């Protein structure tokens, strides 16, 4: 299966969180399950992603939720409209991002994010994301994503 981010055209693939053309980026990769209508990202933080020793920096967790949500929005919109991302790349930007840090996230285990679209309406998609560390829910996010309008800000992403 191909990660949603790999369908982004090169001019939209420089994002620090998920752009495949950003050599210094996180390279977040999101996979869509059309049967369940939900998405998954896995990410293993590095030792330098520390908040306090043993725990993951919250800004990194917010970045994971952010880019996981933009990709989930693209997949959800494509499925809702019966489009193929291969033929019709869709790219969303984050209009609003809310992150609840429910528990400290331990540094070490692989993190798993699950995204569920709550609303797909026009250019807007609302996505709820849960982030698990070793099976424990530690972060919940809600994001409002807006599809980039035709010809908008080309090359900036
Ligand atoms: C990087 C940016 C440059 C772009 C270059 C483009 C190319 C590169 C792409 C690569 C992108 C990488 C993506 C990585 C993920 C990020 O980190 S993106 C970076 C952070 N995000 C930004 O910088 C976005 C800045 N904000 C904006 O540009 C504009 O506010 C937006 C988000 C495009 C929306 O403006 P708009 O197109 O005028 O949309 P508008 O018609 O007002 O609203 C559409 C819908 O969204 C809702 N909405 C809009 N804002 C909000 C909000 N804050 N809260 C709740 N709902 C909202 C509206 O209510 C409306 O809903 P409905 O009425 O239809 O139900």
Automatic annotation (TrEMBL):
Catalytically driven reaction(s): tetradecanoyl-CoA + H2O = tetradecanoate + CoA + H(+); decanoyl-CoA + H2O = decanoate + CoA + H(+); octanoyl-CoA + H2O = octanoate + CoA + H(+); hexadecanoyl-CoA + H2O = hexadecanoate + CoA + H(+)
Subcellular location per the Swiss-Prot or TrEMBL entry: Cell projection, Ruffle membrane; Cytoplasm; Membrane
UniProt keyword Ribonucleoprotein, yes or no: no
GO molecular function: hydrolase activity
Gene Ontology BP, a term: fatty acid metabolic process
One Gene Ontology cellular component annotation held by this UniProt entry: cytoplasm
InterPro entries for this protein: HotDog_dom_sf, THEM4/THEM5_acyl-CoA_thioest, Thioestr_dom
Top-level taxon in the UniProt lineage: Bacteria
Key words of the record: Apoptosis, Cell membrane, Cell projection, Cytoplasm, Fatty acid metabolism, Hydrolase, Lipid metabolism, Membrane, Transit peptide
Leader sequence segment: none
EC number from the UniProt entry: 3.1.2.2
SUPFAM superfamilies per the UniProt record, alphabetical: Thioesterase/thiol ester dehydrase-isomerase (SSF54637)
Pfam families cross-referenced by the UniProt entry: 4HBT
Topological type in the membrane: Peripheral membrane protein
Domain Thioesterase: 54-136
Chief place where the protein resides: membrane
Family as reported in the entry's similarity comment: Belongs to the THEM4/THEM5 thioesterase family.
UniProt protein name: Acyl-coenzyme A thioesterase THEM4
């Amino acid at each position: 299966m191909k990660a949603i981010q790999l369908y982004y055209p090169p001019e939209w693939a420089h994002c620090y969180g998920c752009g495949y053309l950003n050599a210094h980026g996180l390279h977040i990769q999101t996979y869509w399950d059309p049967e369940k209508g939900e998405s998954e990202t896995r990410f293993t933080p590095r030792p330098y992603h520390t908040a306090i020793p043993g725990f993951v920096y919250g800004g990194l967790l917010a970045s994971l939720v952010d880019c996981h949500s933009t990709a989930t929005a693209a997949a959800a919109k494509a499925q809702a409209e019966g489009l193929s991302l291969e033929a019709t790349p869709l790219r969303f930007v984050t209009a609003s991002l809310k992150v609840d840090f429910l528990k400290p996230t331990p540094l070490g285990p692989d993190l798993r994010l699950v995204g569920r679209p709550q609303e797909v309406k026009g250019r807007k998609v609302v996505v709820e994301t849960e982030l698990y560390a070793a099976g424990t829910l530690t972060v919940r996010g809600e994001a409002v994503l807006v599809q980039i309008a035709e010809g908008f800000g080309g090359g900036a992403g």
